[in-house]
Amino acid sequence: MKGLDSFGRIYLHRDPVDMRKSINGLAMIVLDEMEMSFEKESLFVFLSRCGRKLKLLYWDRTGFALWYKRLEKERFQWPRDHDQSVLLSTSGDLIQLLQGFDVFQRPHAHLTYAGIG
Question: In this predicted structure, what is the pLDDT of residue 82?
C-alpha cells in the first residue's frame, strides 16, 4: 500500500461518477474520457454525484488499488470550471482536500508596499 505522498501526479476527474463503478469502470474513465494511461506514480481521484464520496485509483507493480472515503455530513470541495481533469500541485493539496479544505480558492493577490503618499 502506498502513502499519499508517494504519488508524483494526482489527477482529479472533474465530473461526478457513479460510485457503483469499481476498478474496471474507473480505469475505463481514465483511459477513454481522461485519455491518460496508468503511470507508476499517478493517482486518479473520482467524486460521487452527491459530493460526499471519493474513490482513489492507482496502479502499482502488481495491479490496481482502490481507496474509498465517505463523509458523513459535509461535501468535498471540487473544481467545476476546469477541463476533464485537474492536476493537483502536491500531495499536500490532496490531504487538505480529504480534510475538507477548498484547495481551489484563489489566494489574495500579492502586493508590494509602495509607501504612503
Answer: 59
